[in-house]
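hey
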């Protein structure tokens, strides 16, 4: 008889707990969130609504049609930092420090619209450079470009790598750089000259700098590290580049650009 009372007490307790969970405000914890609060469907992205936002905030670096400029080309099927739509929205929202700022001023819907517009740019026909890529390759070799640039695994990386440059930069941008190399310098690119206490100057590209030290790579590939308090002088040559302007004929310039753009 005592066993029956004990069983009844346990059953009554279980019923009480169940009723408490159902009718108490705390009972919502016991109900799965997907059932307690229906999810709302995401806002459908509108490429046409994203176009004016893109033109206002993005085109100065990427071009009105996504042809590229200071920023990479966007009118292509595959984007290195945004292989899918989710990553593309994140890149727009968060930026890519230090060159691309975040879009804190855009709403989630606006970011989705800009991303949709960027995806639509891939459907536009790409630029077809006028020039002979084979002759351009010979000009590239004759001009000694490999002494400063890596291209398809060949060359020396004193300057920016040129492998697949045609997928990142527009024809107009490449022409402008070849004619005036200092017109657009890579982000973080800075030439410096350090003068040691003995008076020996070392000029090259700054690879790193902090409060106490500076590291420089010269055009022969040698890396130097100096403590600033051991230097007589440290000069930052803002806006300068070791790349000389190319005195090319219009046809040679077209051929060289065609070679670079054709190198995917």
């Amino acid at each position: 008889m005592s066993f029956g009372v004990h069983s009844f007490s346990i059953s009554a307790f279980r019923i009480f707990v169940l009723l408490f969970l159902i009718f108490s405000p705390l009972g919502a914890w016991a109900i799965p969130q997907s059932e307690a609060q229906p999810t709302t469907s995401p806002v459908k992205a509108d490429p046409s609504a994203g176009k004016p936002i893109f033109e206002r905030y993005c085109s100065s670096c990427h071009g009105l049609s996504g042809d590229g400029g200071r920023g990479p080309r966007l009118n292509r099927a595959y984007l290195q930092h945004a292989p899918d739509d989710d990553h593309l929205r994140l890149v727009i929202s968060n930026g890519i420090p230090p060159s691309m700022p975040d879009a804190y001023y855009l709403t989630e819907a606006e970011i989705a619209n800009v991303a949709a517009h960027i995806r639509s740019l891939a459907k536009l026909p790409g630029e077809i450079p006028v020039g002979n890529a084979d002759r351009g390759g010979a000009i590239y070799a004759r001009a000694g470009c490999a002494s400063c640039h890596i291209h398809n695994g060949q060359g020396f990386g004193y300057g920016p790598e040129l492998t697949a440059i045609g997928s990142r930069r527009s024809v107009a941008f490449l022409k402008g750089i070849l004619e005036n190399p200092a017109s657009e310098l890579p982000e973080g690119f800075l030439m410096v000259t350090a003068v040691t206490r003995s008076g020996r100057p070392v000029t090259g590209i700054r690879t790193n700098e902090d409060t106490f030290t500076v590291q420089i790579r010269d055009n022969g590939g040698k890396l130097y590290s100096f403590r600033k308090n051991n230097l007589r002088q440290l000069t930052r040559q803002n806006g300068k580049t070791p790349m000389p302007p190319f005195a090319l004929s219009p046809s040679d310039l077209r051929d060289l650009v065609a070679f670079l753009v054709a190198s995917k």
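Residues 158 and 234 are 20 Å apart (CA to CA). DSSP finds nine helices and seven strands in the chain.
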